[in-house]
Structure formats: structure tokens, C-alpha cells
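Q: I'm writing a short explainer about Regulator for a general audience and would like to include a description of its predicted shape. Could you first generate the structure from this sequence?
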Amino acid sequence: MTQQDISGEYLDGYAEILTRVSATGRRLSRDELESRRALGERAAERGCGLRQLVIGHLATTREVWSALPTSGGAPGARATAETVLAATEQAVDAFAEGYERAQRLAVRQEEAARREFIDDLLYGRSDLGRLAERAERFGLRLARAHAVAVAAGPEPYDDTHPVMRRVESALHVRFGERQILLTTKDGRLICVAPGDQDDVLRYFTKQAHTATEGGQVAIGRAHPGAGGVVHSYEEALGALDLAGRMGLEAPVLRAADLLVFPVLTRDRQAMADLVRSTLGPLRQARGGAEPLLETLTAYFDSGCVAAEAARRLCLSVRALTYRLERIHRYTGSDPADPMHRYTLQTAVIGARLLDWPAQEL
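A: Of course. Here's the predicted structure. Afterward I'll give you a sentence or two in plain language.
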């Protein structure tokens, strides 16, 4: 079927409307306008181009105009021309309205289907076989391993946010039609990419960090299958949560580099017992446990270098040394002693993970 045949299907009754209107000088009736809108909707649903259809309307108008009987007087001819042109304007406007209405509905339906798929993908709430079938529609082949990167910024983002559009445009220019899924969830930017394409995730990380003006990005490990996407996504979220609790300020967090922390907290009761027994005596200090816990955190984070820890705390080295001596006196463990250091450092990590002493254990 030619383009002309396709256009003709959506011009059904148009010539007759023009002929009738030119004879009476009236405007199009409500039923005539609705018939144009219905044809516009049908054309959009079948994917016909609006430009070609408008050209078809104008060509038909020209044919009808040339076939109209003319009276001898110029004023009458002018009146007929204005009538036909007004009718053409009404008809084309109604047709375009129906076309655009169908397109908006299609866009909303597509967005709803995409959002439903993303929710099912990230939460694993759908049959995995069915999910894999739906994934191909959105450019993913879940038989492969995938990794998920999650970016959090100072404000929540959705799919229409300028930050999302900026990152999406940058990745499209760089990687074209690669099997990448970009979306947002719970106010964060999310990138799902094949696990063997680490360059995609690195570039997403760079763009997201810049676009969010210093936001933090976490990358989960690559895992196979639809369930692997969920696993990687949860690892990335866990890394961001861990960064918040531990005060980790690195712009990029890789779940693979943070595996020790889930291991430490897997037995929460055992960790809580360690924190209470090792650091609990610090509550007896003047000012409470917080200042001394902060001292231990800075000391261990600086590689047990007293001068660097003092600089981070804005203290003199002598003041820092005095605090370390107080910690030794209260806990019985010397932070400078390698035999005691591991227990103290593990307890400090546990305290940060469990939000002690703010939270009772």
C-alpha cells in the first residue's frame, strides 16, 4: 500500500464536507469535527506521519476547490474561498487534535509500562521469565550479567528533571544505542549496564557526580539474570546507606570494596556486645563517649598517625595523645598497641554502623 493510499484512508469524507460547506457557507458541525478527531486518533495509533497527512488534506482541498462551480462575480468567488479555507482550517485542526490526543495517551501508556517494568526489575516482583521478555523491549538482555549504579544528590530527581536529561544526553552521545537502562527511583539516578561494560558505569558516575553538583554514586557488583539486577541494585543502595552511617565522603563507592562491613554486621547481636563491652566504659568520661569515639575514628581513619589525626580534629598532638591515654585508661585497651588496635577499631566501626551511643544497644 502506497503512502497516498494510507493518507486516503484518513481523508474519508473530507472532500464531501468541503463541498457541502462551500455550498452553504456554514462552519463544520460537531459530528463532522468529531469524525476528523477520530480519524486523527486512528492515524496516530497506526504510526502514520502527521506531516504527510496534513499535505494530503491540503491536496484534497485544492482538488475540491478546482472542481467547485464559480459564479461570475469576484465577491462570490472570494466568499467561497474564505468558506473553504475556514473549513480546511477547522478540519485540519480537529484532525491534529485527535492525532495529538492519541499520541499523548500512547506516551502515558508507554511511561506507565516502563515504570512498572522498572519497579518489577529493581524489586524482583515479577516472574523472572516474563521479566526477561519485557526487558528486551527496553533494551536489556537479562541472560547477561548486569551491574547497577545509583547516584544520590542534594535533591530528589525524576525522569523529567534537568539533571536526569543532562546525564541521559551525555550517555547517549557517548555510547549510542548500547544496552543501557537509565531511570530514576526514589529520587535517585539509576544506570543498569552489562557487567562487562565498566566504561559505561564509570562514565555515568562522572556525569552524575558533576550534574548533581557533587552527589555520591554507588556501584553494585555484576550478577547474572533478572535476579542479578535486583542484587546489584540492593548492593548499591546498601553502599550509599553505609556511607551515610560511616561518614564516607568518597564520590564513588564500589560495593566490592565494602564487603567487610556487611560481614561485620551480619551478627548484629555479637557486634552490639563488642561495642558495649569495649567502648561502653567511655560513657563514664567527662563529656560522654562521643568526643573520645570521634578521636578514635579520626585516629584510625588517618592510619594511626597522631599528627594527621590531630590535624583532622583541630587539636594539638599533645591534646590528641592525652585523649588516647584517657581511652586506654577507661577501656583498658591501648590504641597504639597492635594487639589492642584491631579490637578497638572493629568496635569503632560497629559503633558507627549501629549509631552508638546515640542509639541504645
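A: For your explainer, you could say: Residues 3-107 form one domain.
Q: Perfect, that's easy to follow.
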